[in-house]
Amino acid sequence: MNFVKFSPRLWFLLGFIGCCSLLGAGAYMQFVEELEPCPLCISQRLAILATGIIFLLAALHNKGYKAYAIGAAVSALIGAGISARHVWLQHLPPDQVPECGPGLEYVFQHFPLTETIKLMLSGTGECSQIEGVFLGLSIPGWTFIAFLMLAAFSLLTIWLKAKTDESRG
To answer: What cystine linkages occur within this chain (predicted)?
Structure first.
């Protein structure tokens, strides 16, 4: 299969499907495997959702593919930064792990929005717990890789479109 012949819209649709798959995996882990997401997990899901929405808009809209590609890449790289922080927290020595905070439901009801966002992006002691490992990487480690792949996938659209235009021109 020649990937160069893919239209940007189809490429973005595939990116959207990838984001939906990641969100589905997160929902499975939460509701079937009963792994309660920590603040950083929820922040990563929001970054996946934002990236997926950008991919969907790009697939539906037939103009400005470069702007959508860059927007999706930025969103994915923000998510990668959150995942990197999560992995870093998981590898801290026990005496350097931050204290566990109140539950997110309590935080949303009683804290100002700026404090809630700070907590969701910085993480708490519960974020340092490793709930599962696959091939030597924790869930946030795999999420980090997924974000990097989504960013690369998005930016690859620009290169593929240029190659397609070159071969036609």
So the answer is: 38-41
Question: Please, are residues 154 and 66 in contact by the beta-carbon 8 Å criterion?
Answer: no
**What is the pLDDT at residue 4?**
47
Global pTM value: 0.84
- Domain parsing of the chain, residue ranges: 3-168
CA distance 36 to 10: 34
Give 158 or 124, the one with higher predicted confidence: 158
Q: How far is CA 61 from CA 90, 118, 159, in A?
A: 40, 34, 19
Fold of 3-168: Bromodomain-like (1.20.1550)
Cα–Cα distance measured from residue 58 to residue 81, given in angstroms and rounded to the nearest whole number: 23
* Selection from 80, 81, 51, 66 nearest residue 145 by Cα: 80
AA identity, residue 48: I
Burial of 167 (0-12, 13-18, 19+ CB in 10 A): exposed
Residue with tokens 């309660």: 36
